[in-house]
């Protein structure tokens, strides 16, 4: 994805081509993870838990420094360990999102990832000192985790740029609404051949994937929810060949109900009811 940009992140990343080398390296490592389906909101929960946990850690550390309330020391340590654990899952899920990006979006994601890794290493160093060090070294540990948190905040900024600026992992059908009433799709039922999809447009311009499967006509959105791939150019897969595989990154959707069967897409396609009118044309309307 690329779009005209006017942000600090863009100004930096547009020139930092050195990030491409890291991106290729990590992409080779990640390859394959992204085929695991997983609901996008859970990824958001993981990111939130990580940033929130580390932020709470810094707040508790600060409280201890100000008040001398040492009873909370173990609370801080617990927050550090718990946040680190959620960060591992968060980083893994973030890599799956990033793996199919390109150009400046990819570089931005790489920078986000490198900053996250740097922050994580510093948090581990802080934990190491907290657990094994003498009491007078705790201030050093707190200083290190505070620096790590600042790096984390910058990483989060670039992570936000990925979602809000480039639309990484945003459902490409999020703003699509099909017709509430029956609408002719300019496809004749007699012209449909088994498993040879055609693309029809609703009056509002929504691209609809129309296909006949074993005598029944089905219709779902034609734009892949992952990154906009054209599903009508995909291939039929699944035991009964009722799933269409996106030609861009391999997401699979059940053509009968629109469900996402395999990632990287995490959202299903909008589904349309179909019927054939007296003139022999296929009509569709949105379900639900
Ligand atoms: S656009 Fe990425 S799987 Fe379809």
Explain the overall architecture.
With 288 residues, the protein is an alpha+beta fold. It is built from 6 helices and 10 strands; from the N terminus they run ααααααββββββββββ. The strands form 2 sheets. The chain has a 6-stranded antiparallel sheet with strand order 1-10-9-4-3-2, with no helix packed on it. Strand 9 and strand 10 form a beta hairpin. Bound molecules: FE2/S2 (inorganic) cluster.
Low-confidence stretches: none
Proportion of residues in β-strands: 15-25%
Oligomer: single chain
Number of domains in the coordinates? Answer: 2
Tell how many strands the DSSP assignment holds.
Answer: 10
Mean pLDDT: 86
Which of globular, elongated, flat, extended, rod-shaped describes the shape? Answer: elongated
**Helix count from the secondary structure assignment:** 6
Main sheet properties: 6 strands, antiparallel
